[in-house]
């Protein structure tokens, strides 16, 4: 059986600054210079639309780089049609740096993503011809040779999800082994150990349980939330956060090794910015594994 891995990274703002006041006589010049400087250090990015694992049309826009101050970033899914292009879905948020995702009901057609930001920035993605709305399959990179003999999902129909620990403990024994192995890898790269946080663990466990119960594999929840939404709803405020998920690995050692063999997942594990972690492990239908990383 195949195993699957995914990684997602979202960095929050660590810097803040204010621009100096200018006289009215030079306001236009100063505004133009500010716009040029902002565009050079703070970018608006539009990713082309795609069909996600739920059969929805989804588009991602982001504001990234050295962005000072919050501004409204709007992401639109645009359909290329005869006459003025149609906006199929639009969403916006006040952010410093972040990824924004919008989703719409999928029908075949030609679409592109349009992202607008501060100083009149407008960025369009490449147009893409969506010919089918069949849900995209979850990627299944090959595990390492050491993990491959037992990397298939459990075949037991009676497998049940792990349950949250009681008595104030954070995580099950398997989840804490993932934390231990993750910290061992970080130590090799000179990063400090991560603290297993109860709120992050709740967010990670609930996502693994949701994927198990609803039979999907994605960083986006079936109800449309992304991992940042789940962390906030668990009560964890963060400046930087990341997430790794996996399916089909049977042991903590196998899944950590699988993540370390994948550049995107390894980058999350070896990000020295992070100080806290939450791990959620659910057996039924997977096993499903979620790692949530964050810096408060």
Folded structure, characterized:
- This protein has helices spanning 27-41, 173-188, 198-214, 227-233, 252-260, 263-269, and strands at residues 4-11, 42-51, 56-65, 71-79, 86-95, 98-105, 109-116, 122-124, 128-130, 195-196, 240-247, 276-282, 288-295.
- The protein has 296 residues and is α+β, with helices and mostly antiparallel strands.
- The strands form 3 sheets. The chain has a 5-stranded mixed sheet with strand order 1-11-13-12-10, sandwiched between helices.
- Helix 2 (173-188) runs parallel beside helix 5 and helix 3 (198-214) crosses helix 4.
- The radius of gyration is 21 Å and the shape is globular.
- It starts with a strand and ends with a strand.
Write a concise keyword list for the protein shown above:
single chain; 296 residues; alpha+beta; 5-stranded mixed beta sheet; 5-stranded antiparallel beta sheet; 6 helices; 13 strands
Shape: globular
Portion in helices: 10-25%
State the secondary-structure class: alpha+beta
The count of helical stretches stands at 6
Q: What gyration radius follows from the Cα positions, in whole Å?
A: 21 Å
- Strand content range: 25-35%
Order of helices and strands: EHEEEEEEEEHEHHEHHEE
Give me the count of strands: 13
Mean pLDDT: 78
Question: Mind sketching the topology for me?
Answer:
Layout: E1 4-11, H1 27-41, E2 42-51, E3 56-65, E4 71-79, E5 86-95, E6 98-105, E7 109-116, E8 122-124, E9 128-130, H2 173-188, E10 195-196, H3 198-214, H4 227-233, E11 240-247, H5 252-260, H6 263-269, E12 276-282, E13 288-295
Parallel strand pairs: 10-12
Antiparallel strand pairs: 1-11, 2-3, 3-6, 4-5, 4-7, 7-8, 7-9, 11-13, 12-13
Helix pairs in contact: 2-5, 3-4
């Amino acid at each position: 059986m195949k195993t699957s891995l995914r990684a997602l990274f979202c960095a929050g703002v660590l810097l803040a600054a204010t621009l100096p006041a200018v006289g009215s006589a030079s306001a236009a010049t100063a505004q133009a210079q500010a716009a040029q400087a902002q565009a050079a250090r703070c970018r608006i990015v539009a990713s082309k639309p795609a069909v996600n694992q739920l059969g929805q049309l989804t588009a991602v826009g982001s504001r990234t780089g050295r962005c000072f101050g919050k501004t409204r970033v709007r992401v639109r899914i645009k359909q290329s049609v005869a006459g003025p292009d149609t906006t199929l879905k639009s969403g916006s948020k006040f952010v410093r740096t972040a990824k924004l995702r919008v989703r719409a009901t999928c029908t075949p057609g030609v679409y592109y993503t349009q992202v607008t930001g501060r100083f009149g920035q407008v960025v369009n993605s490449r147009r893409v011809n969506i010919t089918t709305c069949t849900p995209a399959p979850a990627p299944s990179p090959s595990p390492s040779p050491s993990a491959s003999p037992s990397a298939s999902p459990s075949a037991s129909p009676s497998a049940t999800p792990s349950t949250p620990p009681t008595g104030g403990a954070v995580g099950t024994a398997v989840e804490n082994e993932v934390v231990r192995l993750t910290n061992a890898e970080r130590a090799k790269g000179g990063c400090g150990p991560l603290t297993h946080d109860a709120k992050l663990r709740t967010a990670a466990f609930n996502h693994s349980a949701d994927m198990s119960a609803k039979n999907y594999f994605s960083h986006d929840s079936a109800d449309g939330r992304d991992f940042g939404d789940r962390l906030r709803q668990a009560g964890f405020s963060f400046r930087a956060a990341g997430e790794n998920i996996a399916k089909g690995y049977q042991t903590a050692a196998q899944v950590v090794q699988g993540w370390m063999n994948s550049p995107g997942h390894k980058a999350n594990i070896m990000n020295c910015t992070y100080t806290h972690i939450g791990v959620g492990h659910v057996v039924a239908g997977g096993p499903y594994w979620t790692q949530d990383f964050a810096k408060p």
